[in-house]
Amino acid sequence: MSIYAPTQASAPATTYRLDPLSPAEIESAVAAVRADARVGDRVRFWGATLDESHARRAPDDSGHARKVGLVVMDYGAAKAWEVDVLLKDVPVCVDWRSIDSRRPGITSEEARAAAAACRSDPAFKAALAKRGIHDVSLVMVDAESMGGFETERYKDRRVTWGTVWHRVNEGDNGYARPVQGVVPIIDMETMEILEVEDHGVVPMSDEHGNFESGAWGPDRSGLAPLEVVQPEGTSFDVDGWKVSWQGWEFRVGFTHREGLVLYDLTFFGRSILKRAACNEMYVPYLDSNATQYRKNFFDWGEYGAGPLTNSLALGCDCLGVIHYFDVAVLGGDGSAREIPQAICMHEEDNSILWKHMDLRRDVGEVRRARKLIISNFQTVANYDYGFYWSLHQDGKIELEVKLTGIMSASGIEDGESAPYGRVVSKNVQTPNHQHYFGIRLDAAVDGALNRLVEEHAETESDPELDPYGNAVRTVRVPLTREVDAAQKTNPSTGRHWRVESADAKNRYGEPTAYRLTLPNTTSSFCKPDSVMARRAPFIHNHLWATPYEPKEQFIGGQYPNHAEPGEDGVHVWQQQNRSIDGAELVLWPVLGTFHFPKPEQWPVMPVDHIGFVFEPDGFFDRNPALDIPKPQKSQGSPATPASGCCSSE
Asked: Which CATH number is associated with domain 3-99?
């Protein structure tokens, strides 16, 4: 059973300074830009973003005008600007800042126009004809960022390259039929096909990769219904974008660049995080073949999570009693586009919270865990990514990233091996690659000012203190400046990090704190002088930390598209070596996974998982979940009679 149980009909009118932009606000900001004499008829946009720093300076419920930042491109003049619009009764542009016209991210509208331009180009059609493709309407072209591989002759142009796929009919999965060796180079301002690289004809797969029901035989039988029933409704309350649940209070947000954002998380009135979001995603492919070697993307910085967000379906993406949030994004053409049911929120049973059985008295106590999940999904061409933020009854916060969709493939000759990947279908290989998720956590553990401490285990080095060889110390190393906070995980020593309050202490005299653990991640395999290694230096550590600075927003830099590799980002900011001892602390954890492809992930991937944990560590004086009520005894079923083992009754 899945139930849509909203406490609001749709996204409410703005009532709080950090609420997501409404369609009306986006349209008003765009109208103010269009009315300015600086822009011509061929104006395009990449994102409308609330100025959060400006919003936070405004008093609550003051009616203070919000400020929106837009990235505006004038194709006719090859110019681009950042424009700040103050949303007064009559919106007004208060600042125009020129930027390199190549640098804004690629919009969905641009990508579709680029694909259409390729299908009309004689050289592109001739390359396809050599491969027996004559109906170009069935050809898919994904416009990909150049990613540090810009050539000197196109250095002043806003260019992309295209990956090419073929469908045998409209319903076919084109990603299963890569057109190897054909690479169009596209000017995204003029939509001119500058050249078509042809690296030689490789046979295309004649195997389909469809995955709708029945595509590979009859559906599996015997799956009985599984219903999630909450007869008394949910345990959370929603007021606009504000949510309360089991001692938690927070606000749901949404931005063009990051998608889902959580603001002002408190637990039983005590602050924990000011802001939490997946801030960037970087995907380097690790194959040197002609069609793959350029593939490395800042999916958020070059495309944007917001416009790629899915509408979620009740009973499919979300199971249970669901509350949805609708959002709005700015399209490349300047129109406000609403995404209904973009964010899903629901409760889930999470097995045992705590338990003990007293064998001497033959009585026991057990409590079941429940968690609140706030999630959304983005589709980036072939891949799909889900971001699941979970809040727990013991004060723990988790992020789980779910990776699914279709692996990016390339064509191979009959009988050819895949030294840098895996053969997954006839004439199809999928390359080794990595996914890096740069997270942004604005800490506020028991107050605005925090400290960062690395913690690990060490064996006792003094034999007089360790006569039995089993003494192990917990070692804490304060990280007081930015350069100290460029850290790597080390599971062999149990390395994790404490975010400590600069002011509050627990009853044991320790600073109250939260612990950050990165249980599974990876390191970069690209050579130090490679484009990939130089383009995203943030991936070379698993944690960074900086003092809050409003202009330092994105771990991989403000505009990675056509950027000089490594010119901006957290690795640059931390060279200032500012103090982070008792600061408004921003943590930048990096989650990385190495994807070794396998046939079982073709033609669509079962979900892979990666994530992190942020949990109390001396924040409380004892188990904070001792007040959870006893579970109700199950009524059982004919096959499973009711049990009375869940309490001492």
From this structure: 3.10.450.40
